[in-house]
Amino acid sequence: MTLQDIGFDHWFAAQTAELGSDGCGFARISAVDRGSYIIHDARREVPAELSGKLAYRIERPADLPCVGDWVTAQWYNNDTAAIIHQVFPRKSFLRRKTPGEAIEHQMIAANVDTAFLVQSCHFDFNPRRLERYVVMATDGNVEPVVLLTKTDLVTEEALETTLAIVRSVTTAQVMALCTITGSGFAALQQTLLPGKTYCLLGSSGVGKTTLVNRLVGQEAFATQAVSGTGEGIHTTTRRQLVVLQSGALLIDTPGMRELGLIGDGEEVDMGFEDIAALAERCRYADCRHAHEPGCAVRAAVELGELPKDRFESFVKLKKESAFYGMSQLEKRQKDKAFGRFVKSVKKRRKN
């Protein structure tokens, strides 16, 4: 196995001259758990820690290495452990707002080619949550693919209705799967290409770990029995990258309850392609689709061409993204002002 086999393509190779250093090699973060890291250099996986210099330079949690990141590392103790010295720029990423009141990004995974957005046909299906996942993927330059699981728990008519709803939410590819019968898995496996990185995103209990075990071909991760409603019990506790027999790389993630967005609102536009296309016909280029005359988006809602609940979801996500984005900007400005204050105090003390 080589670095190329675990995703080190030409984009990363072009940066090695700048990031390389004597005594160090390149590796990929394959697991993160409460500040502990495991790195993979195509030969082995070993535990790793941040160098003091790297830890000192990190200004915010999103700058810490996450699963999928490429790093420069130095091995020691007979190559059984390593120190991470530098992190490569990210080609793509999956991130969300940190859960709770904190206004920061939380990295989910980096350098992902395709995000599998997993929802159960039975208890979990939620088009509004799916919209958030689509926005998260497109914001990070990641291709979204929707996976509908537990198709055995619904009728064919109900499944067709669910598929129609998904297609009204996103133009992304959608696949229906059943872990009991194996239906849909052959088609899924054909999409998994060697050296490409895929990530599973979804709420707890929708069947992500079962999907991983079936794709790996063994019980790589523990699962628990489902409840009486068909809802699975959450088992994944950390983000982890595994290499499949096909050569594809798969990242499993713990279930996410909160999917807050941070930005200037443009990432929402990318996740709502139908509304973005309508907006191009608005009279004003900066139309907010509120009360402006000549708004093609509101006109589509009134004519029934655009579902009202989808438009309301779009407006809600735009406001949420803009609010947290502005809050984060203000926070950074305050942090910078405080940093300048500390430097000025140190300077006066020296004088």
TrEMBL record:
Chief location: cytoplasm
Binding site for Zn(2+): C282, C287, H289, C295
UniProt xrefs under Pfam families: RsgA_GTPase (PF03193)
Record EC number: 3.6.1.-
Molecular function terms from GO: GTP binding; GTPase activity; metal ion binding; rRNA binding
Enzyme class: hydrolase
Gene3D superfamilies recorded: P-loop containing nucleotide triphosphate hydrolases, Probable gtpase engc, domain 3
Subcellular location: Cytoplasm
Domain EngC GTPase: 110-257
Cofactor-binding details, from the entry: Binds 1 zinc ion per subunit.
Keywords: Cytoplasm, GTP-binding, Hydrolase, Metal-binding, Nucleotide-binding, Ribosome biogenesis, RNA-binding, rRNA-binding, Zinc
Keyword Zinc: yes
One GO CC annotation: cytoplasm
Cofactor: Zn(2+)
CDD domains: YjeQ_EngC (cd01854)
Binding site for GTP: T149, K150, T151, D152, G202, S203, S204, G205, V206, G207, K208, T209, T210
Superkingdom of the organism of origin: Bacteria
GO BP, sorted A to Z: ribosomal small subunit biogenesis
Family: Belongs to the TRAFAC class YlqF/YawG GTPase family. RsgA subfamily.
Its job: One of several proteins that assist in the late maturation steps of the functional core of the 30S ribosomal subunit. Helps release RbfA from mature subunits. May play a role in the assembly of ribosomal proteins into the subunit. Circularly permuted GTPase that catalyzes slow GTP hydrolysis, GTPase activity is stimulated by the 30S ribosomal subunit.
Subunit description: Monomer. Associates with 30S ribosomal subunit, binds 16S rRNA.
Name this polypeptide is given: Small ribosomal subunit biogenesis GTPase RsgA
Species of origin: Desulfolutivibrio sulfodismutans
